[in-house]
Write a structure and sequence with these properties.
The protein is of the alpha/beta class. 32% of the residues lie in helices and 12% in strands.
Length: 204
């Protein structure tokens, strides 16, 4: 699943004009990762707007112009709840340590702020738990998070069924799902109904 999650992240940033560098090409198996090995991607936005100010903590598509450089760490735990108890695990946030920042600066240079960005399946639905999670992440040194749903909606909306995405397995799968009407574009879900609710019909 980690490879799929990383593919989604890479395609999302490339779609939005970022230059994406995978920080390491090997998998750490028999030992704990060092701080710099926690980094999954280094991204650089050549079209960033420095005057736009910092992005929101929960990044949406409109925030991307505010991101010039970032360390990106992907946590594709789609079957696990992400909340305060998970944040408290010391190994989770090793990427905010100075060793990680130094490694990123060596690759990206020292031009502008370096965002520490965490990619998550979701934040808690409860407002109190969500606020607590964000508070803990900020306190630990995380600058922003981005949710998989945000990235997937952007990718689904960008894929055109009349194009052959032979260079990307992920985009090609999305294209085929849309082509065979197994996947709706985000614009069709603006008026999402509760499960089991029948569509309204107008009387004429």
């Amino acid at each position: 699943m980690s490879a799929v999650g990383e593919s989604i992240v890479r395609e999302f940033f490339e779609l939005n004009g970022f230059l994406v560098c995978q920080h390491r090409k090997y998998a750490v198996m028999a030992r704990a990762k060092t701080a710099d090995e926690e980094i999954d991607f280094l991204v650089h936005n050549p079209h960033a707007d420095p005057a736009a100010g910092p992005p929101s903590f929960i990044i949406g598509p409109d925030d991307l112009k505010r991101v010039a450089r970032a360390i990106v760490v992907v946590k594709p735990w789609h079957t696990e709840r992400f909340g305060p108890s998970v944040v408290s695990k010391t190994q989770l946030l090793k990427f905010v340590e100075k060793r990680s920042l130094d490694a990123a600066d060596r690759r990206l240079g020292h031009d502008g702020p370096l965002l520490k960005l965490l990619v998550l399946p979701d934040l808690p639905a409860s407002e109190s738990l969500k606020s607590k999670t964000i508070e803990l992440l900020r306190a630990a040194g995380v600058d922003a998070v981005i949710i998989f749903r945000t990235m997937l909606l952007e990718l689904i909306g960008s894929v055109e069924v009349n194009r052959n995405y032979a260079k990307s397995d992920l985009l090609q799968i999305i294209r085929l799902l849309k082509l065979y009407h197994l996947l709706k574009g985000p614009q069709l879900d603006l008026f999402a109904r509760k499960r089991g609710q029948k569509p309204e019909t107008s009387s004429q």
